[in-house]
């Protein structure tokens, strides 16, 4: 019989693997970018199809992006920003000191 692994143990083991922190950070960034685009799209009352047309993308690509399923290139972000009548602003900010 095999030992069962609970979710917390599995997560702890996976996060200890090389590159896990970077992958987690990329997934968080993709999710946050997707949520921001979805919020902007919904604020102007557009469907995913309407945004896709305006950005020169497919509806499925917009859906994947909004769900956090892809890490976009700067070119894609710029196209989405333009379609949403926004300006893309990429910058570096200091990390808040936890002390």
UniProtKB/TrEMBL annotation:
Keywords in alphabetical order: DNA-binding
Keyword Glycoprotein appears in the UniProt entry: no
Matches recorded under InterPro entries: Cro/C1-type_HTH (IPR001387), Lambda_DNA-bd_dom_sf (IPR010982), TransReg_Diox_bact_type (IPR050807)
SUPFAM superfamilies linked to this entry: lambda repressor-like DNA-binding domains (SSF47413)
Listed Pfam families: HTH_31
Domain of life: Bacteria
PROSITE patterns linked: HTH_CROC1
Example of a GO MF term: DNA binding
Record keyword Transmembrane helix present: no
GO cellular component term of the entry, any: cytosol
Domain HTH cro/C1-type: start-end pairs: 37-91
CDD domains associated with the record: HTH_XRE
Name used for this protein in its record: Helix-turn-helix domain-containing protein
Species: Micromonospora chersina
């Amino acid at each position: 019989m095999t030992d069962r692994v609970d979710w917390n143990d599995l997560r702890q083991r996976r996060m200890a693997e090389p590159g896990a922190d970077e992958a987690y950070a990329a997934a968080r960034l993709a999710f946050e970018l997707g949520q921001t685009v979805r919020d902007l799209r919904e604020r102007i009352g557009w469907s995913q199809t309407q945004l896709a047309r305006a950005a020169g993308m497919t509806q499925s690509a917009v859906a994947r992006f909004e769900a956090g399923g892809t890490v976009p290139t700067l070119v894609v972000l710029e196209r989405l920003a333009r379609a949403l009548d926004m300006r893309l602003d990429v910058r570096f900010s200091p990390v808040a000191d936890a002390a």
